[in-house]
Amino acid sequence: xLLDRHRISRLIALAAMxxxxxxxxxxxxxxxxxxxxxxxxxxxxxxxxxxxxxxxxASPASEWxxxxxxxxxxxxxxxxxxxxxxxFGGLVLALPKLTFRATPAALLLLRGQAESADAxxxxxxxxxxxxxxxxxxxxxxxxxxxxxxxxxxxxGPQGWIxxxxxxxxxxxxxxxxxxxxxxxxxxxxxxxxxxxxxxxVPGRAPTNADQGDLPAPSAETASVGFNxxxxxxxxxxxxLVVGVGAVVLVRASQDRNRRMISERLAAREGETS
Length: 273
Hints:
Elements: H1 5-20, H2 23-28, H3 30-42, H4 46-57, E1 73-78, E2 85-88, E3 91-101, H5 106-111, H6 137-145, H7 148-152, H8 179-183, H9 208-211, H10 219-222, H11 231-272
Antiparallel strand pairs: 1-3, 2-3
């Protein structure tokens, strides 16, 4: 699965900003939040997009776009006598205070990122629930509860890491090898390169006599690289056309998705004005 660690870190910062910024500072960062949401939406699957829109549409339009990065905190339980305890025959037992932290709606987009061949390998994690993903379950639990301090411990400079794991070894500088010197045969004591056992002189292109019984390439074989009617060339050209067509279809689908979110976000922003 893909989980962009940079966007997770940025969402943590935006959620903290949402809870602390006010007035002009809050207004100043609204465009930044919108750009973040647009990029996350574009890279998410359709299922994640639908879940995200359902969450944000449940909030008042006047709270957009901050409602998408807000982490709600609620508490239950508490001391006795104030409705926070349970009474048994006049005896009130206090219940412990429990804190629940709802994850930001934007986390649905980040955890539902679509697969991409050019994604950063450091953002790849084993599928949750698999045998390989078992060591990463604490990270998923931290995301479920939006435990930001725990989440940040799993973010490394080169990818997701398991806290307490040994650091990666430092790069070792290796002196460049002179390929030309490696390919040259060792010289004799008089400084001349030794002759080839077959009598071929180093540095001279082999002739037909040097090749022995190897047949010379026919005129038909030599012209394959330039004959556009050759079956190999025709097959390659067909594969190229099919590949280009697939790319065009994918880009067209992406353009439609971008237009859809732009229209929905624009409608959302129009309700706030």
